[in-house]
Write a structure and sequence with these properties.
The strands form six sheets. This protein has a nine-stranded mixed beta sheet, with helices on both faces. Strands 14-15-17-16 form a four-stranded mixed beta sheet. The protein contains twelve helices and 22 strands. The chain is elongated. The protein is an alpha/beta fold. 41% of the residues are buried. The chain has two domains: 227 residues, P-loop containing nucleotide triphosphate hydrolases (Rossmann fold); 173 residues, 2-Layer Sandwich (Ribosomal Protein S5, domain 2), CATH 3.30.230.10.
């Protein structure tokens, strides 16, 4: 296991003096184009660019090949699922933004990370700007032993945070949350664009100078996007998104931006009273309670989470509409694709979908938004409209075009292999599929009308 880097490896200045110097340096940057070493850039010369070449302390570039590789200096979180998403751990000096809906478990997971690092004898600092220190202790007590090297700072002042980092010299800092802290020298309250930009810039500068990894907790809006200025996403090195249904125990953490490894990897956790527990095999939760095979409207789809295929049940329920505006309810599936799929069904299945209220859902708390789920979702909807069950040993994969054609999707072989491992024996896939998997019958189709015919009869004429 890689060792934690010394938190002060990048500087020789001790404690408060170092942090105070960092704070004043970053505050000086708030005045554009001003530096006391070089004078006012753009002022004081005939050509408007007095950049001070005569000064001895002008920064010099470094040959790219001579720069040390910082990816070998990783802080392992001690949580295998999270380390896999982070390609091995938090890189020294990196800044990570962790976002998710309120109550999804962000703070709990990061508290577990801090505890894990502190149990190894390293200083870990939690800046709690939304909860009091006593509230944090109550939540942390559920996790077990509280190590003496786990520190909590109850403050909303970013300058207090900077000074505390200099005193404690932690191996990791978690700020919960970036929207709750502020710089009293600036106009605007916590969460304003100016405050979020300035505070995140200051903390990122400290992280780079001290080689301490920082994790900033961020809020999301109602539509699931990150709150605050877009510059925050550009500033950080990694963006982690935590998802899940608060009414389900399953949680997923994925990296949508990662400068030090692959994006798209997903870690799975189960929420319990004692915290978040890693999930090695999620299928007891995802497929353990599937309805009777004779129930219409249920189709299994192998979704991809990074390099990891996950079989998720898609369900549809159709009921006679009682108004002229039928309901369309989509839960954990992409609502923007639903109207196009219904138009294809109207055109090729001979079903008047406007006569029905329709409810579609991905079961188990896993969000399924990829176009590869089109064929499975369409099959579930047709099955519900016709009140005919979809074969229980069959999965469906493919993107559906507006003309009803079935298009190829990425990672077909990996998806089909995972379905075969779990006992499925047939897969309806695009005509271009050339994958061959043992014990799995590949049923290639070119158009949705073949899938619709398969639902009606259980037999398929390939075309």
């Amino acid at each position: 296991m890689p060792q934690l880097p010394p938190p002060h490896a990048a500087t020789a200045l001790p404690g408060e003096a170092r942090t105070s110097d960092l704070v004043h340096t970053h505050l000086a940057y708030r005045t554009p184009y001003h530096d006391e070493r070089y004078g006012l850039l753009g002022v004081g010369s005939s050509n408007g660019m007095d950049i001070g070449n005569e000064h001895d302390n002008v920064p010099q570039p470094t040959p790219l090949g001579e720069i040390p590789d910082i990816t070998s200096m990783r802080v392992t979180t001690g949580i295998a699922e999270l380390d896999r998403v982070l390609s091995g751990g938090l890189v020294a000096g990196s800044v990570t933004l962790a976002a998710g809906e309120p109550g999804i478990g962000k703070s709990t997971l990061l508290l577990q990370v801090l505890r894990s690092i502190a149990l190894r004898g390293y200083n870990a600092l939690l800046v709690s700007a939304e909860e009091s220190a006593s509230q944090v202790k109550l939540r942390a007590a559920r996790l077990g032993l509280l190590p003496p090297t786990l520190h909590v700072l109850d403050s909303r002042d970013v300058l207090d945070i900077a000074a505390c980092v200099g005193n404690v010299l932690p191996s990791i800092v978690v700020v919960d949350s970036i929207q709750a802290i502020s710089d009293p020298a600036l106009v605007g309250g916590p969460g304003s664009v100016a405050q979020v930009r300035a505070c995140s810039d200051l903390l990122a500068g400290i992280a780079k100078a001290t080689m301490i990894p920082f994790v900033l907790v961020g809020h999301v809006t109602k539509d699931g996007t990150l709150a605050g200025p877009r510059v925050l996403e550009h500033l950080v090195d990694t963006v982690l998104i935590m998802e899940g249904d608060r009414h389900h125990a399953l949680r997923s953490v994925s990296a949508v931006k990662h400068r030090f490894g692959a994006t798209g990897e997903t870690g799975l956790f189960r929420m319990e009273r004692s915290g978040l527990v890693e999930v090695d095999d999620p299928y007891e939760m995802l497929l353990g309670d599937r309805p009777d095979p004779s129930t219409p409207g249920s189709v299994v789809f192998p979704a991809m989470r990074g390099e990891r295929p996950l079989l998720v049940e898609l369900q549809a329920l159709a009921a006679q509409a009682i108004s002229q505006s039928p309901k369309r309810v989509a839960k954990l599936v992409d609502p923007s694709r639903l109207p196009a799929l219904l138009a294809v069904i109207d055109q090729h299945a001979g079903i008047a979908s406007n006569q029905f209220d329709l409810y579609v859902s991905a079961v188990g708390g896993i969000k399924v938004y990829e176009p590869a789920s089109d064929l499975a979702l369409l099959s579930a909807i047709v099955s519900a409209f016709r009140s005919v069950p979809f074969p229980a040993d069959t999965i469906a994969i493919g993107e559906v075009g507006l003309a009803g054609e079935i298009r190829r999707v990425p990672d077909l072989e990996r998806r089909i292999a995972e379905a075969a491992r779990l006992g499925f024996r047939k897969v309806i896939a695009p005509m271009s599929t050339d994958t061959r998997i043992k014990d799995m019958e590949i049923i290639p189709i070119r158009h949705v009308n073949r899938a619709i015919a398969y639902i009606r009869s259980g037999k398929l004429h390939v075309a």
